[in-house]
């Protein structure tokens, strides 16, 4: 018997404690057989698509090229976005060199060939022919966008075996022949294939600093890691040699700053990092409140007007805990105490019998919810539920998760991910093809399993435990689009039933394949120790099939029942090769590779999207699923055409001619349309997670969106509902809950309506319905719109400025100018004072305008305020507009026209004292309605158009660090729809 670095015993018997196979059984009888299913027999998979030469190009918000590669061989059916993402991220080699990959074929062949060769070498297949069939099947699936591995596989696998790339010495791998950990001299011979890592930390300075080092190395290579800090003694306890410990929060500061330093010099926008603390820890309240306190500091700095509000600005860089997701690990006992108004007793880390501070459980839950409401952290992980479904209870508890919270397993382990595109599993009769899906799952889970012992890992402990437990994370994407195409609302019992059935089929097939591999190569090393709890969990999965909603099609539920019965029966005979098999990851970048309309288990974002064109530019399109769905639910073509035309013009399906009210829920999306009122409720998000969770080894990374006006009580209700539904983790994001764009909450609005104390400025509020004036302008070829809202007396009271085709930076600055001017006007600052300050400011863009009154502008700001003066300041036009002809009106004379000097003197005389206009607060999306109305062109020239749309959905979404486009929240991370940049485990 051998022990690993964590003290876990490992059996070295030939059968790992399983029922021995007959000594006469041949390899052909027990190893995996792969017959042609997707790719026709003896056919080159790359000949099954039509190819074309393309230029892959990614532009920033100004339309400037960030990346470009010409003459790339791309399947004709792949979109421009899929092309740009794969070429820019996954093609190996320096651009414009001979080593650079030039074809999708090279990338897929590099990965599929290497994995297949490893499988043949290691005896996974019944014969070499089966191995070759496996290669063709895997290549075909990836080529036809049916599935994809997580990004590290595309980055690293095959570089050594196909191109001879060696790399610099770094990671560790488990040598199967010598049963030892080694650090290879040729790292790409053992490529890193995992994106998800969990690491432990012990309560001593040496290990605390060891974790800091290993985290830094993971961040350096763009990976994420999670750690539970409950092992570190609290600040309420005592040191062995006297004194008071500093507690886990003090070391969280160290870890946070290391992550900040590495990200600032590295390639990721922010380090992907999860930190958790258990509910019994004495410092739990400090942990819950820490990010709220720091967020408040950042907002104070921003509101001072001296610091910019973006996430990478000085305000956020100067406060703590901004580089990690935080989660509180809650037990069933705590949740019960919360519901029953009970007390919650914490305990010491070093002595479980020594009580720590006692709190009202409901108060602690309220603090968690308050933090989530205020800044998005902490989330929650349900400790008791997680360990109830733990397959390896006898090897230790599950303490932590990866940053996105979908991978949950033992400390010091890793998981490689892959996802299946559900939309590709539809038959021509629009039913779900169960056998097709099962075959795809079988192929991908086999490929993932082959990778484990041929991959390298960042620490020796992770390398060893990956070999001992072999956890995997198969998942799926595009369920939201699939349900809509079938005419099934995301928020419906039938939709949840189908999602549950898909999850059951996937995990059941994955574990069944794992058992078939164990029949040949043996179960995972720690299986014998954990046979009883693992079979118990497999039985729980099987029993949950009966709980799938009865509205689910019978054929899906029957198939799920069959695969789980077969899985449990096989496991009892042979065990399982893998301790875990499935998760639901956010599928960020790889969702683009598969041309998925929706990521992970998410619903669609919007019905109107902006498609990248092969030659550059954008095209506004109605979601391609919509016409298919309208036909599915029974509309004729003229009615469909009318509805599509309405959506194109109004950016919403609500109110479309001929659309029946009962069909509106089918088209509900995650975000409310600019001109609509409907969106998917948070309850629907949580219920969808509850439908899938019983059939997953791990958990679900998903965005539970809440509107800005959600309350703390709403968030607490969501957490409670998630626990009742058996979720393992839940992260909620209330729109606007980050100060990276200053908030304008209902509470602030209420405050504004209160009478101001004597001597303080009083705000004059605009009427709800008011007249406005809109003016189109052009400065140096840069077009835009000025809209002025008027008070009842006709005086200007608000300003919106929209640049037609500029990036988010210019648009944001114009929003700031508009908001600043509006607030000044409503608080009584004379327009004359603003004109004096902002007219004739000189910066680009500048130039000719086409306006005969202002033929040349020194800047956009110069034009805006001179135009305002022309319209609203009496005498300004006459004094400043160029002379255009002799014709004074009757009663006028040249002497009555004031000179610029006289106007300047008049303005100065009007201004008594200094007007302080420095306390400015920017608001994002002031002119969202007009921005949307402007997007009626079919062919648009800049990715900024899509950013404007996403900014409408999320008022505080950050910009992509790679290309500057506005990102979309995806799981616990953010995803860029312009360049494919992802902070998730994909």
From TrEMBL:
Domain Ribonucleotide reductase class II vitamin B12-dependent N-terminal residue range list: 53-145
CDD domains in alphabetical order: RNR_II_dimer (cd02888)
Names of required cofactors: adenosylcob(III)alamin
Ribonucleotide reductase large subunit C-terminal domain residues: 194-733
Catalytic reaction equation(s): a 2'-deoxyribonucleoside 5'-diphosphate + [thioredoxin]-disulfide + H2O = a ribonucleoside 5'-diphosphate + [thioredoxin]-dithiol
Domain TSCPD: 767-869
SUPFAM superfamilies in the cross-refs: PFL-like glycyl radical enzymes (SSF51998)
InterPro entries assigned to the protein according to its UniProt record, in alphabetical order: RdRp_reductase_class-2, RNR_2_N, RNR_lg_C, RNR_NrdJ/NrdZ, TSCPD_dom
Function: Catalyzes the reduction of ribonucleotides to deoxyribonucleotides. May function to provide a pool of deoxyribonucleotide precursors for DNA repair during oxygen limitation and/or for immediate growth after restoration of oxygen.
NCBIfam families: NrdJ_Z, PRK06556.1
Family in the record: Belongs to the ribonucleoside diphosphate reductase class-2 family.
Descriptive protein name: Vitamin B12-dependent ribonucleotide reductase
Native source species: hydrothermal vent metagenome
């Amino acid at each position: 018997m051998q022990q690993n670095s964590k003290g876990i015993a490992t059996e070295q018997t030939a059968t790992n404690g399983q029922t021995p196979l007959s000594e006469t059984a041949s390899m052909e009888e027990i190893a995996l057989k792969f017959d042609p299913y997707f790719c026709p027999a003896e056919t080159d998979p790359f000949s099954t698509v039509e190819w074309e030469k393309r230029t892959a190009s990614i532009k920033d918000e100004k339309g400037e090229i960030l990346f470009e590669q010409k003459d790339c061989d791309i399947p004709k059916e792949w979109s421009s976005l899929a092309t740009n993402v794969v070429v820019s991220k996954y093609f190996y080699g320096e651009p414009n060199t001979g080593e650079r990959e030039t074809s999708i074929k090279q990338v897929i062949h590099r990965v599929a060939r290497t994995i297949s060769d490893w499988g043949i070498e290691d005896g996974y297949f019944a014969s070499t022919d089966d191995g070759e069939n496996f290669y063709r099947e895997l290549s075909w699936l990836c080529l036809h966008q049916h599935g994809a591995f997580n990004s590290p596989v595309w980055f690293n696998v095959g570089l050594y075996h196909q191109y001879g790339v060696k790399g610099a010495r770094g990671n560790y791998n488990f040598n199967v022949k010598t049963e030892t950990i080694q650090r290879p001299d040729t790292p790409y011979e053992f490529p890193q294939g995992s994106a998800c890592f969990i690491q432990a930390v012990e309560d001593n300075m040496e290990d605390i600093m060891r974790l800091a080092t290993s985290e830094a190395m993971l961040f350096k290579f763009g990976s994420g890691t999670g750690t539970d800090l409950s092992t570190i003694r609290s600040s309420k306890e005592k040191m062995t040699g006297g004194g008071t410990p500093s507690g886990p929060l003090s070391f969280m500061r160290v870890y946070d700053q290391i992550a900040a330093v590495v990200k600032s010099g590295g390639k990721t926008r922010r380090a992907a990092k999860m930190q958790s603390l258990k509910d019994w820890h004495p410092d739990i309240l400090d942990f819950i409140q820490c990010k709220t306190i720091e967020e408040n500091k950042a907002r104070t700095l921003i509101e001072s007007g001296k610091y910019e509000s973006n996430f990478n600005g000085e305000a956020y860089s100067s406060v703590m805990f901004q580089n990690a997701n935080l989660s509180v690990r809650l037990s069933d006992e705590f949740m019960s105490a919360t519901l029953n108004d009970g007390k919650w007793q914490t305990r010491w880390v070093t002595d479980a019998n020594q009580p720590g501070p006692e709190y009202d459980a409901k108060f602690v839950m309220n603090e968690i919810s308050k933090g989530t409401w205020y800044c998005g952290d902490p989330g929650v992980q349900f400790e008791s539920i997680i360990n109830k479904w733990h397959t390896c209870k006898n090897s230790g508890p599950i303490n932590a998760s990866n940053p996105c919270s979908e991978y949950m397993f033992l400390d010091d382990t890793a998981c490689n991910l892959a996802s299946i595109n559900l939309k590709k599993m539809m038959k021509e009769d629009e039913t779900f093809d169960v056998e097709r899906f099962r075959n795809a799952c079988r192929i991908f889970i086999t490929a993932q399993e082959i990778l484990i012992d041929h991959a390298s890992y960042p620490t020796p402990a992770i390398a060893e435990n990956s070999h001992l437990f072999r956890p995997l994370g198969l998942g799926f994407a595009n369920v939201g689009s699939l349900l809509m195409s079938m005419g099934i609302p995301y928020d419906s019992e039938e939709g949840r039933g189908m999602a549950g059935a898909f999850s059951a089929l996937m995990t059941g097939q994955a574990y069944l394949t794992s058992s078939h591999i164990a029949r040949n190569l043996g179960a995972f090393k720690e299986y014998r120790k954990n046979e009883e709890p693992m079979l118990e969990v497999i039985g729980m999965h099987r029993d949950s099939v009966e709980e799938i909603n009865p509205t689910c099609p019978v054929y899906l539920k029957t198939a799920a029942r069959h695969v789980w019965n077969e899985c449990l029966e096989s496991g009892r005979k042979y065990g399982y090769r893998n301790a875990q098999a499935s998760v639901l990851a956010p599928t960020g970048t790889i969702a683009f590779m598969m041309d998925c309309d929706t990521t992970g288990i998410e619903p669609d974002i919007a019905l109107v999207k902006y498609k990248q064109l092969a030659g550059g530019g954008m095209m506004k399109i109605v979601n391609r699923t919509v016409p298919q769905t309208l036909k599915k639910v029974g509309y004729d073509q003229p009615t469909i055409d009318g509805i599509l035309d309405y959506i194109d013009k109004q950016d919403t399906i609500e109110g479309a001619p001929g659309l029946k009210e009962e069909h509106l829920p089918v088209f509900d999306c995650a975000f409310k349309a600019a001109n609509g009122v409907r969106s998917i409720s948070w309850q629907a998000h949580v219920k969808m997670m509850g439908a899938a969770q019983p059939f997953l080894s791990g958990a679900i990374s998903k965005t539970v969106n809440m509107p800005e006006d959600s309350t703390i009580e709403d968030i607490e209700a969501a957490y409670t509902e998630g626990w009742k539904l058996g979720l393992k983790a839940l992260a909620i994001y209330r729109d606007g809950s980050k100060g990276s764009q200053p908030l304008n909450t209902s509470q602030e609005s209420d405050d504004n309506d209160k009478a101001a104390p004597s001597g303080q400025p009083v705000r004059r509020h605009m009427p709800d319905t008011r007249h406005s004036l809109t003016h189109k302008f052009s400065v140096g070829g840069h077009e835009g719109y000025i809209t002025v809202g008027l008070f009842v007396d006709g005086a200007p009271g608000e300003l919106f400025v929209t640049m037609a085709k500029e990036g988010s930076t210019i648009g944001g600055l114009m929003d700031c100018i508009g908001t600043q001017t509006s607030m000044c006007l409503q608080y009584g600052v004379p327009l004359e004072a603003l004109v004096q300050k902002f007219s004739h400011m000189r910066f680009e863009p500048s130039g000719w305008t086409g306006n005969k009154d202002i033929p040349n502008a020194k800047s956009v700001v110069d034009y805006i305020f001179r135009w305002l003066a022309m319209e609203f300041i009496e005498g300004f036009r006459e004094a400043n507009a160029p002379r255009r002809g002799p014709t004074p009106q009757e009663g006028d004379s040249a002497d009555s026209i004031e000179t610029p000097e006289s106007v300047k003197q008049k303005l100065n005389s009007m201004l008594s004292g200094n007007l302080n206009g420095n306390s400015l607060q920017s608001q994002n999306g002031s002119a969202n309605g007009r921005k949307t109305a402007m997007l009626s062109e079919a062919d648009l020239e800049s990715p900024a158009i899509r950013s404007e749309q996403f900014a409408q959905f999320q008022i505080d979404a950050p910009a992509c660090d790679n290309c500057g486009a506005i990102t979309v929240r995806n799981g616990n991370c953010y995803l860029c729809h312009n360049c494919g940049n992802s902070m998730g485990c994909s």
